[in-house]
Amino acid sequence: MTAKGETRAAVLAKAAGAAAVLGIFNLMVGKGSRPMVDGRSQPAEPRPSDDGHSRRADLATYAFGYLLALVLTGAAFALVRWRWAGGTKALAVVFGLALAQAIVHFRCFLHVDLKRSARDDLQLILFSTLIVLLMVGGTLVVLLNLRMRMM
To answer: Average pLDDT in the 20-47 region?
Structure first.
């Protein structure tokens, strides 16, 4: 080895580091090899193509939900900004758009639908909504009753 050249230990350390980085990357991506059996490393099983299709379908659902949420939000802001409807009619339309946006969020982002496997999640969300509505409704009854007594 020359004075400019690296020692054998430095070259081996760099090679081991590079191999470790590549091994960790392959494990994270899922292309690593399976554990050794009978002293031999077995190649990783190929990923099913269904996994890639599922990932693309999820991304498409997220993109569709995002665009729909943007459109619904923009419609509500435009309705109020440019006064396309007045008073109570505008309020009713904004509440309708908010309900539609809540449905979009449940379906596209939380993956809650009417399938049999997702009914537990749907029941949990409906029960939580009921509890929140009861709490808000009770609070409003108490506050309005106090207001009436104070006047």
So the answer is: 53
